[in-house]
Specification:
The radius of gyration is 15 Å and the shape is elongated. By secondary structure, it is mainly alpha-helical.
């Protein structure tokens, strides 16, 4: 799945911010959730789209800042 397809699944344009993606992702997951009237197929599709977008965001951060941005996260989580 490509980033543009994933953005379409959650209903956003390519220029959406990370915060917009998170909000739209949560909304799309609730709408597609089988317990709330959605289908399991659609729910899985939204989950895969969000996973792709999360992966794309990590790659963009890596390309912009190198490994230093990930070193800070790992050191912070380890305590």
């Amino acid at each position: 799945m490509q980033r543009d397809e994933a953005m379409g699944i959650i209903g956003l344009s390519e220029d959406a911010s990370e915060e917009d993606i998170k909000k739209a992702g949560r909304k799309a997951l609730r709408k597609a959730h089988p317990d709330l009237g959605g289908s399991s197929e659609e729910f899985i599709r939204v989950q895969e789209a969000l996973k792709e977008l999360e992966s794309s965001a990590k790659v963009e951060k890596y390309l912009a800042f190198g490994t230093s941005v990930f070193d800070v996260v790992v050191k912070t989580k380890k305590g």
